[in-house]
């Protein structure tokens, strides 16, 4: 694990170990190909595809970044370094072909990684901190897979941000004209409401980003070593697509990965409620984050496979299409997984189908060894 610009991991044991952790599932016969499944913060040591891929003759790696289980201080550029460490580790151990699979929030991250591995451009985080990715060791991979993935944390976060919140310290003070939970607005939601709603989301995101930059400027002027502060963001699971199935139509049912939408929107365990100033700019700010999946996919040259679940409540068909359309060459494939939910929970037959599809694609592209 390459060192970050400051202490951004709570665990002293993890910092002192200086490592990122992964689990390797080996095929019965030696494999010269490894599929690496990654996410910015989710624990993928036991990812549901690892065993099925190994059973089909392909070594599979569930990779965690240094931010496993806690994204409150996550820096996307450090996640890129962590992937680079893992890819280098696997290359040194003889893997001739490595395919990087981004699941859920890993889709934008893997695109970011390969873009910087092929042609690095990012010299600092949005806050101006290290790392300089143009000087990092980032071995390119041989293929990219986007699996039930969205185009990037900042992009999807803005699509989910609740614009009805008028007081950042009190989420119960709300603007009824921008409240997707007010039955007078829907569902179904009118095109006019959606237009105002999306504009309200972007405006709120930019207000938060403005306060973040002001606060960082204050810290820069303050004597001492304090460089960052934590803060809370309320209302982060409020995309109208969670309730109106006609928007970005698919086979999904109303609701979220965390349960009923209105509850998930405010519950502490759902997306991105706890963050730091510097992490906000790197991870969640739509105008600042470097992790824009379509932008980076457009800078890659390797074969790409995009798979999406038609019953996914998190990543919608337009997310998959934006990733697929961004790939700048014709060596790409878009595959709907009919009836698939976000993590294929309770769907073993679809896990097998996804594994078969991925391995078949590897063979077709000459990436299986």
UniProtKB/TrEMBL annotation:
Transmembrane segments: none annotated. Keywords: Hydrolase. Residues 297-346 form the Serine aminopeptidase S33 domain. GO terms for molecular function: hydrolase activity. The keyword Hydrolase applies. Pfam families: Hydrolase_4. Gene3D superfamilies: alpha/beta hydrolase. This is Alpha/beta hydrolase.
């Amino acid at each position: 694990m390459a060192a970050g610009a400051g202490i951004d991991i709570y665990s002293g044991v993890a910092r002192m170990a200086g490592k990122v952790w992964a689990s390797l599932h080996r095929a019965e016969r030696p494999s010269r190909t490894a599929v690496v499944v990654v996410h910015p913060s989710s624990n993928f040591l036991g990812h549901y595809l690892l065993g099925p891929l190994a059973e089909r003759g392909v070594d599979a790696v569930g990779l965690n970044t240094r931010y496993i289980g806690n994204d409150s201080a996550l820096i996307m550029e450090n996640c890129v370094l962590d992937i680079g460490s893992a890819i280098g580790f696997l290359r040194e151990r003889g893997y001739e072909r490595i395919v990087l699979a981004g699941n859920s929030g890993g889709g934008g991250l893997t695109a970011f990684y390969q873009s910087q591995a092929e042609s690095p451009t990012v010299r600092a985080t949005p806050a101006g901190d290290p790392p300089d990715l143009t000087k990092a060791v980032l071995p390119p991979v041989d293929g990219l897979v986007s699996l039930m993935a969205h185009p990037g944390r900042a992009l999807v976060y803005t699509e989910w941000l609740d614009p009805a919140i008028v007081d950042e310290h009190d989420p119960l003070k709300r603007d009824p004209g921008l409240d997707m939970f007010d039955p007078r607005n829907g569902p179904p939601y009118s095109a006019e409401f959606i237009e105002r709603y999306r504009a309200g989301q972007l405006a709120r995101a930019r207000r938060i980003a403005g306060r973040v930059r002001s606060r960082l400027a204050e810290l820069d002027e303050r004597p001492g070593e304090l460089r960052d502060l934590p803060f809370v963001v309320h209302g982060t699971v409020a995309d109208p697509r969670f309730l109106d199935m006609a928007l970005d139509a698919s086979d999904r049912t109303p609701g979220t990965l965390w349960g009923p939408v209105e509850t998930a929107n405010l519950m502490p365990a759902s997306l991105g409620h706890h963050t730091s100033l510097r992490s906000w700019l790197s991870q969640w700010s739509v105008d600042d984050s470097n992790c824009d999946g379509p932008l980076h996919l457009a800078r890659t040259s390797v074969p790409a496979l995009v798979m999406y679940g038609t019953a996914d409540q998190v990543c919608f068909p337009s997310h998959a299409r934006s990733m697929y359309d961004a790939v700048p060459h014709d060596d790409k494939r878009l595959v709907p997984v009919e009836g698939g939910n976000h993590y294929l929970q309770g769907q073993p037959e679809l896990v097998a189908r996804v594994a078969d599809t991925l391995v078949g694609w590897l063979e077709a592209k000459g990436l299986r060894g």
